[in-house]
Amino acid sequence: MKEKYRVLIVDDQPWIRDMLSEVIISSGYLAYVASNGVEALETAQKEKPDIALVDINLPDISGFKLLDHFIKMSPSIKTILMSGLSDSNIAEKAHKAGASAFLVKPFDIFEAIELLKKVLE
Amino acid sequence: MMEHLQVKSTEVLRYIDVYEELFTQRSFKLKEEPLIYLKEGNHKVTIEVENEELKNKGEGLYSFNVNSTLLINKNGISSVILSYEDINNIIKLREDLFKMENLAASGEITAATVHELKNPLFSIRGFTQLLEKRLDLDDKGREYIKIIISELDRMNQLLEDFLSLFKKHNKIKEILYIDELLEETLSILKPKIDKHKITCYLNVHEDLLPLFGYKDLIKQVFLNIILNAIDILDKNGKISIEAYSKNNSIFIEFQDNGPGISKTALNQIFDPFFTTKKNGTGLGLYISNKIIKSHGGKIICETEKDLGTKIIIELPSISN
Questions:
Q1: pTM, entire model
Q2: Which end of chain B has less neighbouring CB within 10 Å, N or C?
């Protein structure tokens, strides 16, 4: 059997981490959480996730910076950026920065799982 | 300006005459005898003037920095050197600056607050979806969940539209090519267009003139109009967009094959908070109209029942 995909969730809002973890685990993935950039980098080093869901507004560094670190650390990590801002320029910026996708909060969590699947394949 | 005068009293001096002399150079009269006491040193003196017009404009108060120096000989005070500086312009500038800062700050606070509401909204929406999975609901129960989700989405849309009133856009006017803007807008909307199985035709005439304007704002208008069309169309709907120039103006037409708009609604579509959509906020076209007007253009809407709706934007081209 193929090993489960590992998903890292990075968001400073605890409820959002819980909610996303539950839907990710119930969809058959492994979920890891981090509440800021430093935690995210530590967890990524230890757990080697396949994909990261990263909020753009983190308390210590921006999601874009974290994405840069991920790319330097391990180019195989895919990243989906999330934000409450729906500005089309941010979506464009996320794409240019190397994100696989961009999600605007609040999004449909089951549609997000579909997107996750697509990015991982 | 300096004024020299003879004085009689010693400690505190009252110089109505002096002030009248100072102010007669101005076109207003003092409302009452200014009971202004002159002491040695620097004072800020504010005087209310009797000029209704000025007062109505909120400019009835005049301020001066007054500096007086008493010259004393053995008989007491012999004269006073009085200089004054008109500081009304400085005060007005300061007030304007304060107002502008306040306005900018309140806009920023509003935007930040609205943005902060997105996180709890997302938690509620996500947990509602999770709850639905966990509960063994009957049809009624599932209907209720659907209503919760669609009301949350409506709330979110309202926040989005509200936010766009305060959104900081790139405040530099630039040369804009309509074909690029339309293509960018369509690529943002692609997932939604695909999901609703809508066919989009884009026809930009080769000789289309560029426009001088704000990129983000014009893009927002295109986004609002196409989103409206998507919302009104059933599956397999069509949207045709045509852009061309005529008489130095740019025309962009958005035609859908939806159900059209009623005559009564047509008169109100640009009014704030008017909407025919179940989840609409009624701000999209209102904001779009404002943006196009600020670019010196106009939006018109033509509609026919069962044949669809056409939104026509006219904008002055760069050569205009």
A1: 0.57
A2: N
